[in-house]
Amino acid sequence: MPDAPEDLKLARQLDGLLGQREAVPDDQFVLTVMHRVQRERRSRKLILFAFGLLGAGFGLLGAVLLAEPIERLFTGLPATGIMQAALLAGAAAAFYVWSMNDDFSLSN
Q1: Count of alpha carbons within 13 Å of 17, Cβ hemisphere only?
Q2: What per-residue confidence (pLDDT) applies to 38?
Q3: Can you say whether the dihedral through the CA atoms of 71, 77, 83, 88 is positive or negative?
């Protein structure tokens, strides 16, 4: 039970607002809206799936087209040079993580 007059006034206003009811739409309207929402979701999923397949196709085509030049690049280099480049890239990444004090924890 509210004690202060302001609380009584607010309680009456709240009761007045809660007492007002709008006309509830009939079930047919709700069903029509839900069918439209489901149809839009299906079309969205279809569009995303189609463009995802198209993107995967372009990615695969690019990988196939670049496979031979990349193979020639790595077969022309000595194995020691490739190993040293990989170690240098790993050392640069480790230095960056250390200097920027990044934390790659999986917790939120």
Answers
A1: 6
A2: 96
A3: negative
